[in-house]
Amino acid sequence: MFINKRYNITDGKKIIEKCSLCSQRTELEPGFYQGTGYVSYGLTVGISIVTFIAWIAATGYGFKNKEVLLWFPLNVVLLIALQPWLMRLSRVLWLTMFFQGDDKFHPYTIKK
Description:
By secondary structure, the protein is mostly helical. The protein has helices at residues 36-59, 71-98.
């Protein structure tokens, strides 16, 4: 779906115009991918919850200990490191939510 297989700063989020298999347009309308912020937010909250539960399970620190605050900077670093992957995943999920094979705006046929 992306022009480059690996993420890079200059054009890491450029998307191909159409799918080579089904001719599905990847940008359905101008500003279509602005909604991926909601998907990315959900993914980061989910990752944060999982890492927080793992932190508590691994260290044994609960909410009453100040040491639980050590998790926060580690989580921030993890989310920054995962951001390119999360951005791409959120775009794929966003496009998948709106694509339907029988949609009149996105005709495609797969010949078998």
